[in-house]
Design brief:
Oligomer: homotetramer
Strand content of chain A: 25-35%
Number of helices of chain A: 2
Shape of chain A: globular
Largest sheet of chain A: 8 strands, antiparallel
Radius of gyration of chain A: 24 Å
Number of strands of chain A: 15
Order of helices and strands of chain A: HEHEEEEEEEEEEEEEE
Number of domains of chain A: 2
CATH class of the largest domain in chain A: Mainly Beta
Structural class of chain A: mainly beta
Chain lengths: ~250, ~250, ~250, ~250
Amino acid sequence: MKNLKYSLSVIMLMVGNVAFGQQRPTMVPEMTEIWEPEVPVVKPGETPQAPPSDAIVLMSPDLPLEKEWVNGKGEKPEWTYENGEATVSKGDIKTKRQFGDFQLHVEWRSPKEVKGDSQGRGNSGIFLQGIYEVQVLDSYNNRTYRNGQAASLYKQHAPLVNACKGPGEWQTYDIIYTAPRFKDDGTFFTPPMVTVIHNGVLVQNNVALRGPTEYIGIPEYTSKPHGKGPLSLQNHGNPVSFRNIWIREL
Amino acid sequence: MKNLKYSLSVIMLMVGNVAFGQQRPTMVPEMTEIWEPEVPVVKPGETPQAPPSDAIVLMSPDLPLEKEWVNGKGEKPEWTYENGEATVSKGDIKTKRQFGDFQLHVEWRSPKEVKGDSQGRGNSGIFLQGIYEVQVLDSYNNRTYRNGQAASLYKQHAPLVNACKGPGEWQTYDIIYTAPRFKDDGTFFTPPMVTVIHNGVLVQNNVALRGPTEYIGIPEYTSKPHGKGPLSLQNHGNPVSFRNIWIREL
Amino acid sequence: MKNLKYSLSVIMLMVGNVAFGQQRPTMVPEMTEIWEPEVPVVKPGETPQAPPSDAIVLMSPDLPLEKEWVNGKGEKPEWTYENGEATVSKGDIKTKRQFGDFQLHVEWRSPKEVKGDSQGRGNSGIFLQGIYEVQVLDSYNNRTYRNGQAASLYKQHAPLVNACKGPGEWQTYDIIYTAPRFKDDGTFFTPPMVTVIHNGVLVQNNVALRGPTEYIGIPEYTSKPHGKGPLSLQNHGNPVSFRNIWIREL
Amino acid sequence: MKNLKYSLSVIMLMVGNVAFGQQRPTMVPEMTEIWEPEVPVVKPGETPQAPPSDAIVLMSPDLPLEKEWVNGKGEKPEWTYENGEATVSKGDIKTKRQFGDFQLHVEWRSPKEVKGDSQGRGNSGIFLQGIYEVQVLDSYNNRTYRNGQAASLYKQHAPLVNACKGPGEWQTYDIIYTAPRFKDDGTFFTPPMVTVIHNGVLVQNNVALRGPTEYIGIPEYTSKPHGKGPLSLQNHGNPVSFRNIWIREL
């Protein structure tokens, strides 16, 4: 009898506690077990960097770039693309799909040959829902403003540490994103929340954004209520490369 | 002149906006740059699973087990240990060091030979600050209560998905932990917050705990204010193995 | 020229800072003034207990009870009602209107003649959105379980202090309520949040609920996604009275 | 036997559920009752505006001003004071006592004779912990920037509505304040949280502050870790009056 789970000793324990008149009757372990619904199974990747079975793969050697991405006009993306590696060339690119809450894995590489400094070196960006930027920058021995370096939430939160690898090395961002919810007046009921792990190192720990990323001015009272949005990658004039991008909707 | 950063055009922009009498004068981009203090540099590991330069390595082939761990009595740990892999044998083990907020990487493996089922199969646990358990269990094709399976915060939060690998395979937990802060009466001012990534898959997203893990009853009004605490690994009678454990204090 | 607000000295200040090459140019006070949109005007009541101009008055001497309230079947409420004071008699009553986030003012009185004790004395309840109970009880020299006394969020949060007035005295609850938002699976994205001020004394400070109020068992995994809901007043068999109820939607 | 609370029927219910082998045994109501510790009793004021028994009275007709207040130099306060009503004259005043988390009641009145406009009319301020300002201003038919009007958290949060009474009328602020907690680097672990009820109308709903109030610039990266602080009242050059100030430490 599969379901006859409770032994006589358990019954006696329960009865005993009651009979002896304790103020709060003793619970049994099974009372805090929750069985339903069963947790869905996901097959993880071979390594933690490989896409698990429920991920939407956005960039990989198996996919032509135009499968999941378009340029700013909604047309075929005009970036260099080879072996699943896309390199900034003309315009920004963004996903055809729209996303709300998600877990995102991105790999990127700044040019091996160092040119420029501060914001002028290896600059690109990943825009969550198209408007909230996680900065991409070659911050390896390259001082800039703290809230604008690699893995900053641009001009809103500096990273906890600078975990940048050197120019020409592939780097990883693992991003956990909770989309904002809005009040009727267009202000945040709950703001966007972002966690970023850079090359395995926690650099943003569930921080709140104030509004869409702004290059000039204070990011507030400029947001409009929005639903899902695309992921977009920025052309900032430097030939930064991307690969192995996958996303899991939460 | 390194610091003479603002061009005449910027000055004119500022003056212009003021002269034209806008209600809110336009800011310039530099006003939202924050330069100090410089973000500290951390050298990441070769892979995201390898310890970065600021991590405390707790278990690795280079370390004898007794360097960082003790048994329940504070004496030499009595687990099997070879090549940086520790396997449950006698009693629990815990770190000599105490931790508050941290990022933690742990790898674990349930026995290749499957024995038992539900909570009886590949069961162990990682206790944050010694009292908050992240469940370790062979949850591969092994149904149990949802709030007690692998990567659950035991009897408090089921994982979002079951990302377990098979028996005998090494698995990873990446855990971000924010320790509770307390009121004078011993209740939480802020509760413990936990994020868990299991084999690269997000399974707990900054969830709050109600109190120390309880096998029986509701976890509340049982907590006492506490400071830092050790990491402890549970002996639940199954020969689960651990390796490559490192932690970064936040 | 109404808008020409900035004097030459302000312009010179801005220019000066830039010209001298500081890393972060000085802002002027006007840059952090936000003028639009204008904040809507509300005329407050004569006293803080009287309804402000934007409140929906639910119970007052000017209103017949059936204007805003129905019984459990949606029909005419069967409570005693005189001079804007409703007294528990038959069944529960609830508002015709549905509410989401709100500020609520309620006045209540337990019977002057004391009968019964613990939960049996002056027991009623205010159910926010019809399912989350703020307990009404004569807790004046009347010991009961702490999470079931007056101003508790029944079986979820005891009040910080017991600010009860004596039997037969009118008492006030000022309640600030933020409704839950839901995920697609029916669990809370954000839980209901409740602040209660009892007779002018803060007794619940923006605490989170775990689910709808439950008399038996742990309130979780029983919630269903819901939108707005009515305010309902409980018949627990004791002739508790209510008056001067108003609500402001937030 | 006072504690023998559970009848035979309850025992049978518990046993019955177990015997029939349900997956999760039924709890009984008493299992979610929490009896200890007893909630402390506070005697509320006659009206919600009168100080309850556990309040520290800071300003009342029974108290000389110098009992609880000093000027900026820690000496006898130099404000006009009569019948428990203090009017701005020379310098700021602040409490001798220091406070952390609290509930605060303040009554204030702008001059009956209207002089000036915008920030120049009936301007004063209440500084929580000496550095976080709740604005006091005659905002009755007096347009100014929304984040600087009465009941704003100055230059951080505009009030939800403008609930100002007219010049010369006494007004109430009921403020619930949670002090910040700090990380070792001086940034907020949790920010200051503020609720304000103005003349009975909710105008700030548990909003977070970014840092100490700043007249110029963005309030961040300027905070230093601090413990308890005084309450201070601002001299902004207008003869604003205060009375009936009491505070309850939380």
